[in-house]
Design goal:
The chain is built from 23 helices and 10 strands. Strands 1, 2, 3, 4, 5, 6, 7, 8, 9 and 10 form a 10-stranded mixed sheet that branches.
Amino acid sequence: MKMTMNKITDKLRRQNRGQYRLLGLCIFLSMLLVTSFTLMFFSQSIQEFLSPGGDTRKLMWLMLGVVSIGCLLFTLYGSGLFFRSKSREYGVMLALGTEKKELARQLAKELAAVAGTYMAVGMALAVPVSYLIWKFFQLLVVNTAQTQYRPGAAGILAGLCFAAVLSLGILVLGVRFIRRTDIMDILNAGRKTEMVRVIRPYTGKLGMALVAAGLFLAMAVPQLTARLFWQGMPGIWNVTYLIAAVGLYLLMLSAVARSGKGRRPETYYKHIISTNLMRFSARQTTRNLCVIAMLVFVMVLSAFWGVMYYFSVTEGGSEAPYDYSIHYPAEEEQIGGEDVRRLAREYGVEITAYEELKSLELVIRYTGRDMDDSGRYFDVEYEKLASFLPESDFTRISGIPMDLGEGEYRTVTSTGYLENIWVSADCLNAVEHPVTGKSMVPRFRGTVEFDNLAMASDPFAFVISDEDYAWFAEGLSEKQKEEHMFFRVEDYMETYDFADAWRREYIAHATERSSHYRLYDAHEEELSLAAGEEYGYAGEIDLSPDNTQLSGDWKYAPFSKVLMQAEAMEFVAVYVLLSIYVSVISLAAAGIMSYVRSVTVAMDNRQLFEDLRKLGADDAYEERVIRVQLQKIFAWPVAAGCAAAGLFSLFLTYFNDMVLKPFEVRMLLMEMLLMALIALVLYGVYRAAYRRTKEIAGIEGKACIF
């Protein structure tokens, strides 16, 4: 009897081998995608680039969570389909008298074999896959010692943790499945339908309105309240994103289950099968389409985030008037003009313009803003050092004529500067002589753009009249002054080797006088020590050319357009790599989930298609029925996900500073191209699903799942 039962079990298993392949494929892809992602995310190369506690590191953790949850839900969905197909097999075994304990043991063995095998294969292939992806992206960036493939043990450990969570989820579904006691309920599990409810005509429109309203409330309102009322929104305000989620559900529900006679009842009755087929599984299908729409949203947004990082880094400083510039304490013996020209001759670089000037480090009192624990912004007066230049020297290096009287100043800003909530360009309340303590209340005369100087002083550098400059310079030593060097070269993008040698020599001449963190201020340190407080930005920085964080952390970091571009590619590559990889994972999950859902629709309604043929329906009619179902599965989630991502991106870029900059418009246009590419890929999946569902429905060929 035992051999007979084993033979029955084996035959039933062979009948459902497609479902075993489906479950195995879901497990394999989830393990491959998550583990390869964690191997890259936890590699030393990426962890060294991510600042501890920084927003980017938090974003990458969020992406890791999205990837893990998405793959988990995707696999659990495949597991649900697997158990649904097993219901008939186990119903037969129960009807033949097999005990549930025996069935539970068999199921445990089968799941252990399938899950264990595919998890092991997925993890094993994750290493070469992550390596190949890393090498591919390394071709697009500068190949340095800091960008080598260096996977960490934490990546493997994270993969094992995901495998454990995945196994637990499958086990819970298996236990729930095996605990069913009603044989007829098990046998008819695949035939169950849902209550057909009336979906109101306004459901879809309400869904679209809620998606837009939810994103606006979550993204625009905090920025508007901060600017208009100086009040930040509490963290609980983020629940407004749920409004958009509800809207997405209503939109998908309307696409799946909305039907009505409208003004043309004859058309409604003509297409009644196509229109109403999914209404009998509306809730389940709607949930699936919502997940697919969210995956599309994540993939578009992740790709956009990578593009945004690239543009935001490479655009900064690209409009600087000079290709190279440095500033350093005047009492430090640094490289001079002759050293630069010697290096230029050595590397065959032609210097087309060279300028130097000296600035004063004066004490300023200015108005900025801070935020309290309740999220309320308030004005606060700061006192620190800032750079001041005479108008004649500024006109000499910039070519911009100045006409400042005594007691007047202009603020030096970066190109395309826009006011922000933290500090304004007319912030100065007083300028004080560091030695004598004499001060004046200056008058604001506007801003002037000059990137090379804007990056040299915080919050700004300032231009004053020659008379005021001479008055403040009297009695100051070299300790209260800074030297500035600016020069242009011919074809600066072809001067990387020279730029690297120039930077290394500049760093070699740096001393403890300039070994400070970017936000260090000597006057603020004096005030803190006088008050008996610890100064947070004290201490020396690691002045090593191989320090990947040096450009962002060093107060006197040199500026070079070619180095900025190279470092931007190296810096951004890790973010672009992870962002694009999240998009690939989401695209794979969305494609497979859409395909599987399409196959499920055909399998669930195979008898319906046979009945239609008996009633005289031809292949063309049944093909039209299939196309309508697949269009709902593919077109609506893709359209909804892309629209939500586009709206999110628009709100993100516009409400950040209340203006759309040219490079932001280019980013949004590139996002539209990404959407078109995603739609093209999923159209290929749609064509494959269309052919397979026709086979399953018996319209052409032999029916099979994979």
